[in-house]
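Session log. Operator J.P. requested a structure for one protein chain; no other inputs attached. Running the standard single-chain path with token output.
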Amino acid sequence: MTLHDALSIVSFEPEHQSPVRALILAGLAERWGVLDPARNGDLEDIAFSYRNADVLVALLGDRVVGAGVCVPRSPAVGEIVRMSVAGDLRRHGIGRAVLQTLCVRAQTAGLTRIVLETTATWDDAIRFYLRYGFQMTHAKDGDVYFALDLSGHHVVASM
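Structure written below.
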């Protein structure tokens, strides 16, 4: 059995709170070397913070190994936030599986466009989104912004 065969993508449940928070904060600490508590208040109660969003968790057995959120920003547009994959399991398709599932679910919900932003110096993240088909729309204040037209993007359920 491959890692992908053992991977499951599920909707966020209250029991995922601590491991998802820890996963996201570990990724941020790895990237930045320090955490700014003022920027992560949404992680104190993920279910409440993202109550109107689609929050997905990637599980390998019982271990939380990935997460991602699609927040509706208008009737047609969703924004991907809080994408994260366990450091020891990156480049194994987990992030792609989470992103793919978010896009399929967004399309099913009637969204036609997905947007996101990341830091302009986060080369791995930029390459990841470009490989998936996102187009860079602009850069501002050290961040880069992307969009994916779901109506023109062939989204196929992967899980």
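Operator note: The domain at 3-149 is CATH 3.40.630.30 (Aminopeptidase).
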